[in-house]
Every structure is written in structure tokens, then in C-alpha cells.
Write a structure and sequence with these properties.
CATH architecture: 3-Layer(aba) Sandwich
CATH class: Alpha Beta
Oligomer: single chain
Distance between the termini: 17 Å
Strand content: 15-25%
CATH superfamily: Response regulator
Number of domains: 1
CATH topology: Rossmann fold
Radius of gyration: 13 Å
Amino acid sequence: MSKPKILYVDDEPLNLMLLKVNFSKQYEVLTAPDGPSGLEILKNNHDIRVVLSDMKMPYMSGIEFIRLASDISPQSSYFIVTGFDFNAEIQEAQQQGLIRKYFSKPFKLNEIDFEIQQSLQLN
């Protein structure tokens, strides 16, 4: 049985590596350094189940990326990871159902893993 695919989009290479190293046993982890690259990966991988995105990135914010990504892959579950405070834009995205949850940096791997497991059971 193949592992569920997840995509993590973040402009900080260390964060991409940390998530990939810690989650690659149970998931196939794809990474992208920015929104446009993340959208390209989604277009080529229709079986991505979970998408995590940094909030502050070059080219587009995490919310902008997720708005575009959800058009490409509406069946995926979306999460924001941010080093900044919870804000109105994140709250609105959560209320609209665009994102399931947001995680603060430095992220807690067990919290992220729990939420990924929850969302995989739902879809």
C-alpha cells in the first residue's frame, strides 16, 4: 500500500527538511519553496491528500496559495504554518473552511501529525 502524499510549501529550507525527515516514514512528503512551485506540484500530483503552507512567502501568501491550490485540488485538506500571530486573514480562511487549522512556528510535530491523521480519516 502506498503512503499518503502530503505537500509542504515553505520558503525556509530548514523547515522543509525538518518536516520531510520527521514524516517520511509514514507519508510521501513533497516540498516546494514557494507558492508557484507548490501549485505546479499539485497539478502533477492529483493524489495529494494534505497540504501545509507557510503564511509569509515570496510571490504570494500562504492563504493566496491555498485559495489557488484548492481550485486545483479541492479534495485536499489545507493547513497554515506561521511564525506570526493568528490574524484576521487566517481566521477568515478558517471560518470559510479554506483551512482546517493553523500551526505556530516553531511547529510541534506531534500536533501536526495528529491533525494530518484526523484529516486523512475524513477524506
